[in-house]
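Practice problem: RES domain-containing protein
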Amino acid sequence: MSPSSAKVPATPPASLTLDASEHLRTYDGLLWRVFATRGAHPQAWDELRHFGPVRTMRFDPHPEPQQHHADYGVMYVAAGSTTALGEVFQKGRIINRRARGSTLAAWRPTRELRLLDLTSNWPVINGTTSSIQMGPKRYTRNWANAIHDQLGSSIDGLYHVSSIDFGPMVTLFSPAEDSFPQLPLVHTRLDSSSANVYLAKAVKRLGYRVNK
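Answer key — structure tokens:
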């Protein structure tokens, strides 16, 4: 068993606790995501994914088996464009600006989001550690499912940090579906010149390469 596995139990407690004054964080700032507009699974900028759980994702709340779950949605977003790009293109550290119509979007939610703050002491009080943000994904998905089922009526998702650059991240759950504006503030294909400023910033910050 690896140290990170030991710090994140495979099975969450049957009853999770929540102190709203300590463990909830409100957020109404910019949110950024990179998503595919072509290929096998194209998405809209404001579309949560209801298919899951996906084995490569950390906080998919969907129960087994892997299929479409109408009551379970998820979207992984970041507080900055560099973190969003870093997360999506971490494999190989190459930003493929032409793959699957990759698109960068940013928006401000229409209301304050109520997020379970995984950077608070909530994890340790509930039997795990802050390693839940970076531990084995097969375990962290179990925690996401328990959080969704037990605390979902009180939260719109999770607040945590990126394992790539430690930037703030938000994982949105289904209750956040009513928080999207009519139009995003930024919506650009990565192969467009309008994305150059964001790509240059990511390359400088992360050391990634960009394929032309």
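Discussion: The CA atoms of residues 41 and 100 lie 9 Å apart. Students who identified this feature from the tokens alone can consider the problem solved.
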